[in-house]
């Protein structure tokens, strides 16, 4: 155990966050996300929802102020009646750490392609539909 490190962050996740460089991205994926088929570096956080994990990560991870968008979410597939209320939760958490942070929206398959280029995919137990989010690391 270490002081001041959120206990929800596993050693594997801390290691990935430390190894990421400026501009690298990390995917926080919901329970339905095809992480293992899209990426070789998958970190399992089964049973954890994304909001507490996002909060803990942002304690440590600076967002990229030089990018147009500091993160991205998967947009709703046209015709799907789902209204992802979890997006508001993500915006509230992110605003606590970076009030100027902007999030873009990617369609499902563009999000998958972007996830393939990310540093890592974190698979969670998040059950909210369209609960996936990508974060872009900045500098201190």
From TrEMBL:
Which Pfam families does the record cross-reference, listed alphabetically? Answer: RbsD_FucU (PF05025)
Q: Name one GO molecular function term.
A: isomerase activity
Catalyzed chemical reaction(s): beta-D-ribopyranose = beta-D-ribofuranose; alpha-L-fucose = beta-L-fucose
Q: Which keywords label this protein?
A: Isomerase
Note the InterPro entries from the entry. Answer: RbsD-like_sf (IPR023750), RbsD/FucU_mutarotase (IPR050443), RbsD_FucU (IPR007721)
The protein depicted here goes by the name Fucose isomerase
- Gene name as annotated: fucU
């Amino acid at each position: 155990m270490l002081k001041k490190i959120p206990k929800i962050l596993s050693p594997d996740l801390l290691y990935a966050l430390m190894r990421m460089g400026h501009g690298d991205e990390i995917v926080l994926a919901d329970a339905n996300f095809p992480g293992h088929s899209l990426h070789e570096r998958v970190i399992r956080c089964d049973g954890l929802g994304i909001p507490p994990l996002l909060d803990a990560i942002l304690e440590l991870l600076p967002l990229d102020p030089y990018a147009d968008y500091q993160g991205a979410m998967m947009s709703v597939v046209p015709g799907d009646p789902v209204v992802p209320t979890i997006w508001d939760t993500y915006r509230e958490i992110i605003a606590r750490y970076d009030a100027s942070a902007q999030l873009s929206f990617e369609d499902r398959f563009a999000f998958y392609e972007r996830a393939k280029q990310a540093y890592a995919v974190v698979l969670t137990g998040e059950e909210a539909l369209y609960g996936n989010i990508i974060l872009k690391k900045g500098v201190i």
